[in-house]
Write a structure and sequence with these properties.
The protein is 57% helix and 13% strand. With 641 residues, the chain is of the alpha/beta class. Bound molecules: ligand C2E and calcium ion (CA) (2 copies). Ligand C2E binds next to β9, α14, α15 and β13.
Amino acid sequence: MNIEMQCCGLILLLVVFFFYHRQKKIYLTTEKAFVRIFLVITIGLTLDILSLAALKYMDRLPELLVDLTCKAYLATLILTALNGIFYVTADIYDNSPGYRKRTFIYCTLAVIGILLVLFTPIYKNVENPDTLYTDGPSVLITYAFCMLFFVVMLVLVIREKHQMNPKRREAVIAWLLLWVAASMIQFLNNNRILLVGYSGAIAVMIIYLKLENPETNLDRQTGLFNQNALIQYINQLFSMKMDFSLLVVCLPSSLVRSNPEADRRVRIEIVRYISSLPNCLVFKGTENEILLLLQDTDQLEQLAEQLEERFNSGWGHNQEIQIRPDWMMIPHGSVMNRAEDILFCLQYARQNSIEFAESGSVILDQDFASRMYEEWLVEHLLDDAIKNDWIDVYYQPIYSIREKRFVSAEALSRIIDGEGTVYTPDVFIPIAEKNGMILKFGELVFKKVCQFISNHHPENRGIHYIEVNLSVVQCSYEHLADSFIEIMEWYHIDPSMINLEITESGSVGTRKTLLDNMQKLIDYGVRFSLDDFGTGHSNLNYIVDMPVDIVKFDRSMIVSYFDNGKAKYVMDAAMHMIHGMDLQIVSEGIETKEQLDTMEDLGISYIQGYYFSRPISSDAFLSFLDKNYAEIPEELENGIG
Ligand code: C2E
Ligand code: CA
Ligand code: CA
């Protein structure tokens, strides 16, 4: 009787079961699909052995029993193939009506197949006791349905390859190949070797080893579920449109100072306690974080209180060790879209949440997620802008009261995306400064300004220099001066055509680098302005220290000059001191004739503002200069922009 292979297969499955059963599992959809495959294949192999035994002792058994045993085995083959499809789609499971409809179709087909198998004849070949096997319509129908399901599996594996876990894909392909090879060998050997059942056991083994080994979801150190498991589990909740809450316990990096053994013991105690909490799954996050996931979001608050109380009562033998963890809470995971977003959100909170930094606890709600997504979008925008050359420089003319014409302009960057949407700097500059992209961005803006000067020679239209904004981050970059000098040399720019605008920078270290950069650039021939004077970012002391030629009065200063009596005196005093230091003043944000006249009366040298012109594209700026350079200055005083 040729049942050796089947027995080997069964033993193999028992070994897998032994290990699988003992391991801690999280019960993902894919895990459940694997368990189903395991069961069907095990039942199949058992029935395979039973049917061979029934064939052998056919003369002593009722024919119906023999037939039924053989047909039950055939039915498990169809069920195995059906579960193969479910295993493939476990990753792409989304509980959508489309998915449910397809599941229904596959199940109906399987039921039809099994009924056909049951009600069509089966022929039993028992002449040679060494090669017992069955054939006939019932067997052919089984093969036909199995083939059909294999083709579906194959199509799914190919079509959904981007959505499938790559390891699952490989395992499923290996399984399909094994199956085909086993069927061929069995067929070519006239059923002397029955390999199909055995190959199923091998497939289970491959899948188990490759990706269903629950160990791969565990953190070795703590025994908690790891990030891999967290990502899979959360993605599964998202795909099933189920809400959940997360509570993150952020332990200090050292729990018991200078006693690693005690530290380790307390860590184990904490992990044990948290693992024992009911109704939540516990994961290991980054190095010192433990994440608790609850599907019943109403219990979050209670759980947080319970944990806090436990931490308050101390750890160690005599509860003598006090630990104050930080907390992060996501009350509703459903405000985000993917597991990766949740992890990003936690990281974003660690780095950006002032509340978290100050109080050690933060609730990451819808508002927080929206801010995070917005920032994320802007980061992508900046990335695309740099890659696709979407950065544009607008120019806002600056008027000289003494010369009664436009003598300079401020370069103000814009991003214009592929669809022509214009983004102003308030959207992207703060984020570019935060993530460091401002260095690349600032360099590109500077290149564009130099290119503009080199191509269009605005000096021939009365422009003495162009003012370019520098961010504090750029100023504290030690190679800034070298990189800017290189750019000016490349475009053959006269350095006196460039005036760089800086604002007050905070730390002493930053100021040293800034001054070094400034000195190098000044030696090269570039001059500087102090921007945003009067906003608290620039004060008088700062002007004394900084080698600047121009001070730019912020729009807010001009506005309060007209609004409030005291501001007048502050501005008067500042103006006299600045002029006393032999520096020029540019008034920004001048919008009306009244403001212009007052600035003129005060003795301010330069005016920038909507009254004359908004920031305009380089072409518009050139036309503006063409128009105004030739015209009579009086006309300008009636306002243009
Ligand atoms: P800023 O340096 O103070 O530039 C002046 C801002 O005031 C510009 O805004 C300008 O459009 C606006 N403005 C000018 N005149 C008036 C007026 O009469 N009324 C009003 N309400 N506003 C006026 P913009 O272009 O949106 O730029 C905002 C800020 O972004 C700039 O403020 C500057 O700090 C920064 N920025 C712009 N381009 C760059 C750049 O290339 N690099 C860096 N680091 N920062 C830049
Ligand atoms: Ca500026
Ligand atoms: Ca300014």
